[in-house]
Design brief:
Keywords: Signal. By secondary structure, this protein is an alpha+beta fold. It has 2 domains: about 90 residues, Glutaredoxin (3-Layer(aba) Sandwich), CATH 3.40.30.10; about 70 residues, no CATH class. The protein has 9 helices and 5 strands; from the N terminus they run αβααββββαααααα. α1 runs parallel beside α4 and α5 packs across α9. About 30% of the residues are buried.
């Protein structure tokens, strides 16, 4: 028993710090007249690859921490969030704003293997992904960020872009000639996907990273 408590002590310490960062909302004695979103929302990918990599276990670990410590956290399973083969993928938000994944600059955590990892994500929820005035940032800022993170994923990027009925690389070139003159097609693809990630994180759109049979490319009848 002592050995078990010693092994669990780092997790308990992480969760103790977590409780201070994530205030527990007291249950009202009377029904509340206002509807407030939970301070933290955690979405776990349940696409095929992530299921094979243990996303059900990741979801279970989050729920166990939530129940044990009475945390006001919304937990949900989601379809494939892409890119594939990197799971379990986690989307963490606070008050509807996506939070930053350590070391990536986007909203996905990967390879959550233990309670400490789950507690770290919960404790970190609240760090904003992008500044509020992100639309005013120079295009190069987004292009460089996208090119760094998505290096090696260009095939997947193009699959997502051309399967999506909302936007595609050729659309970017038609609508933004200044981008077409300055960036290669590969950088443009990263820029488009970077914008899609931001908008998806803000709840403005959702992009599924798998090609749909009914999807049509721009210009097709």
């Amino acid at each position: 028993m002592r050995a078990l408590m010693w092994a669990l002590s780092p997790v308990i310490a992480s969760v103790s710090a977590l409780q201070q960062q994530l205030p527990v909302q007291p249950q009202p004695s009377t029904p509340s007249t206002t509807s407030e979103a939970p301070p933290v929302e955690i979405y776990v990918c349940t696409g095929r690859d992530c299921l094979e990599d243990g996303s059900r276990e990741t979801l279970r670990r989050f729920k166990a921490l939530k129940d044990e410590h009475g945390l006001d956290v919304k937990l949900r399973a989601r379809p494939c969030m892409g890119p594939c083969g990197r799971g379990p993928n986690i989307d963490a938000r606070r008050a509807g704003v996506a939070v930053k994944s350590p070391g990536t600059g986007v909203t996905l955590w990967t390879d959550v293997a233990d309670d400490r990892g789950c507690a770290t994500i919960l404790a970190a929820a609240g760090e904003q992904l992008v500044p509020e005035d992100y639309e005013a940032a120079p295009p190069r800022t987004f292009a460089e960020s996208a090119s760094k993170f998505y290096r090696g994923y260009w095939k997947q990027i193009n699959n997502v872009l051309f399967a999506c009925t909302i936007v595609a690389v050729d659309w970017l070139y038609q609508e933004r000639p200044d981008i077409a003159d300055e960036y290669s097609l590969r950088i443009a693809a990263g820029l488009v996907l970077w914008q899609l990630c931001i908008r998806a994180a803000q709840g403005r759109m959702y992009v599924r990273a798998s090609e749909q049979p009914t999807a049509k490319r721009r210009g097709e009848n």
